[in-house]
Design a protein that fits this description.
Blueprint: H1 2-5, E1 11-20, E2 25-27, E3 31-33, E4 38-49, E5 52-62, H2 75-82
Antiparallel strand pairs: 1-4, 2-3, 4-5
Length: 83
């Protein structure tokens, strides 16, 4: 992506956050997930230029919608507020 934007990265960093399930959840396709096990994970791959992340790719996976805030324009702030 940086190359397509004409940018040169100083480094690439990874950032991961995990959330436990607040209750046991059973899904139709994946089975049962026990309370306290991982319910959601959010990760970023950050392209750093001049010491600051300038290109950020984010992905959020949830076992259940209650595990983490919905994605949208301010998802990083929303995730932090509910942590």
């Amino acid at each position: 992506m940086a190359r397509a934007l004409g940018a040169e990265l100083d480094e690439i960093r990874e950032h991961v956050e995990r959330r436990p399930l607040g209750e046991t959840i059973t899904t139709a396709t994946m089975g049962t997930f026990e309370k306290g096990t991982q319910g959601a994970a959010r990760f970023e791959v950050r392209g750093v230029i001049g010491g600051a992340p300038r290109i950020v790719i984010e992905h959020v996976t949830r076992i259940h919608p209650a595990c983490a805030p919905p994605t949208g324009r301010s998802r990083r702030a929303a995730w932090a507020r509910t942590a």
